[in-house]
Amino acid sequence: MPDLLTKDSVAFAAGLTFDAIPDSVIQIAKRCLVDGIGVAITGIETDVDGLLKTHVTRQGGDPDTVGNLRLFGNPGSTFIS
After folding, report:
1. Could you read off the pLDDT of 18-33 as tens digits, one per residue?
2. Are 80 and 52 in contact (CB under 8 A)?
């Protein structure tokens, strides 16, 4: 079943043209893209690692279990891995 779903999805995407996408969908996609870029830029200046470790500690956990966190290859940013 998953193979059929993948095949159908790939066939749909391969045959899709930009003109076939409704304007409302394009506007939503643009808004999501801009929002995602804004979140990423904001995250660069946010001490997410410190916030996460504080939260883990307040919940009774060991902040050292948070691990080596990175986002977009920037060691100062956070990606939970």
Report:
1. 999 999 999 999 999 9
2. yes
